[in-house]
Amino acid sequence: MKKFFYTIFMSIIFICCTFLAAACNSKEEPEPAAAPDPKPISGSFLQSWLCRDWTYSRWNQEFAAMKELGMDYMIIQSVYDGSFLQGKAEAQDWQSYTRNGYLGLYPSEIEELEGAILSSQNRGDALELALRAAKNNDMKVYIGLLSDDRWWDFGWGKPKLPSGKKDPVTESYFAAWCEYNGKLNAQMIHEIWNRYGKEYDEQIAGWYYYNEIWNIDVACRQTDDKAYATCIGNNINYFLDAINEACPDKPLMLSPFFNDTVSTARQNKQFWIDIFKVANFRAGDIFAPQDCVGGKNISIDELDSWIGGLKKAADTEEGLCFWVNNECFTPDYKPAEVSRLIEQIEATETYAEAHIIFSWNHYYNPLNAPAAKSYNDELKEYLKQRSESE
Q1: In this structure, are residues 195 and 106 in contact, taking their beta carbons and an 8 Å threshold?
Q2: In whole angstroms, what is the distance from residue 3 CA to residue 17 CA?
Q3: DSSP 304-372
Q4: Percent of the chain beyond pLDDT 90?
Q5: Count of CA atoms in the C-beta half-sphere (13 A) of 150
Q6: CA 246 to chain centre
Q7: Residue 260: pLDDT above 50?
Q8: Order of strands, edge to edge, in the sheet holding 98-104?
Q9: Is pLDDT at 73 greater than 60 in this prediction?
Q10: What is the pLDDT of residues 104-142, one digit of tens each?
């Protein structure tokens, strides 16, 4: 009898230890970001050049006007903007460039960002004013990180290699820049979170990946040995690793574009599937492609193939949220008719879990341009009618 009870006792101990060990060894997955309420427009982009010198009162006005339209999110496209003058070496040799200057929305202590021109307000800390005003208006902010204009010298033909180098995936100028850029953005994530995370945790919705990826010709034709997909995926992973270390519950959002003269929609879909195989996106991260109706003059009829293809690519990444960034400007960078924006929203809502726009703040906002009042009023009426009919 003693032996029987001893056996039962030891079995219970063994089972408890097994469960305890499994719990200790398992990786805790971050909670997916809460899905936005289904609405025609959940947020809008704001570029730093427009808001750098805003007062706290002006930030409050902006958030209040966005909230009146039913928006939840402001996406600050970048908090540091770097300008570089090309050197005498090959264009892709990013280290040969001369730094022309940085503009910043907060006073960074990162050596690379020293000497930036900052806001005239709040001792240079415009980002704190934005977060404080967001808190006051019960709004949330996606924080975009570094704009480095050297990005635009890549993506044309196969990645160039320094003399004596052979592997474009690990030894090209682009591979080296992706590593440099990823590490610098990772530093910024840690710095910004350490600086603002405790006080403004609820206001920081997540992070925005600034580098605008497009349907690169050789990548879409599969003639680059997947160098671009691998380098870009590795670059994104620096962001994701830093977020996992600093604030794992905060999603990363990215918003690529496409040009229908460069590739087919099917080729673009495959390019993104290749990137998703490398980038370690998590449940709750947000893939929000631009619809390119404004910037690249894509027709409404083409959106099914392009946005639908990108949705299929995103579906290969479990838990990745799919939003659509609808553009409210014309190819000559003037406000688009609101009726056209409505068509874009309604043409893509089959695919979109949420819609954001580029950009109410710049094109429809009467606070910035009194002539935009008619656009804002028309948009407000449409949103009101949608809300009443749902």
Answers
A1: yes
A2: 21
A3: HHHHHHHHHHHTTSTT-EEEEEEE-B-TTSSBPPHHHHHHHHHHHTTT-SEEEEE-IIIII-TTT-GGG
A4: 81
A5: 27
A6: 17
A7: yes
A8: 98-104, 80-85, 146-148
A9: yes
A10: 999 999 999 999 999 999 999 999 999 999 999 999 999
Residue 63: how many other CB atoms lie within 10 Å? 21
pLDDT of 170 > 70? The answer is yes
Residue partners of 302: CB distance under 8 A and separation at least 6: 260, 265
Write out the two tokens for 142.
Answer: 């996606």
Residue by residue, DSSP assigns 136-205 as HTT-EEEEE-EEEGGGGGSSSSSPP--TT---HHHHSHHHHHHHHHHHHHHHHHHHHHHHHHHHHTTTEE
Among all chains, which residue has been given the structure tokens 């730094």? Answer: 99
pLDDT recorded at residue 35: 54
The dihedral built from the CA positions of residue 266, 268, 272 and 274, taken in this order, carries a sign that is positive
Report the 10 Å Cβ neighbour count for 104. 24
CA distance 372 to 115: 36
| Range of weakest confidence among 16-25, 54-63, 278-287 | 16-25
Confidence of residue 11 (pLDDT cuts 50, 70, 90): very low
Residue 32 above 60 pLDDT?
no
Spatial CA neighbour of 221 closest among 281, 157, 174, 126: 157
How does 239-260 read in b/e, with b if 16+ C-beta sit within 10 Å? bbebbbebbeebbbbbbbbbbb
Tokens representing 258? Answer: 């496409």
| Residues 256, 322 contacting (CB under 8 angstroms) | no
Report the first-to-last Cα separation within the chain, whole angstroms: 69
Residue whose token pair is 């021109």: 117
